Amino acid sequence: MKFYIAAPFNQREEVKEIYNMLKSLGHEITTDWTNHKYIKPYNTNQQLARRYAQEDLEGVLSCDVFVLLSDGKSQGRNTELGMAIALHRIFGKPSVYIVGESNLDSMFYISRGINRKDN
Length: 119
Description:
alpha/beta; globular
C-alpha cells in the first residue's frame, strides 16, 4: 500500500521512524517531506515552497492511506487533510486516519469516513 503522512514539520523525526516501519512491512511512501529544508518565511522562499507544495499534493493524490498526526500545530497538514477527505468522498480512497490524542480537535476530524486512533 502507498502511504502519505501529514504532520507538523517539527515531528519529522517521528515520521521518519513511521516511514521506516512501513517500508519494512513492504509499504511505499508517496512523498517523503521529512527531507525538506525549513523554508519559513515562505515569502522569501516562494519557489521552493511552491515545489514542496506540489510534491506533497501529488503524494496525497497517489496514496492509498492518508494519516494525519493530530498533535502539534501545522497549517499545511490541514490542507492535505481536506484534499484527502475530498478524494475519499469522490473516489473512495485514500483511507483517512487521524492519529493522536488531539483526534477530536477539529470538526473535520469527525467527518464521515474518517478513522480516529489515539496512537
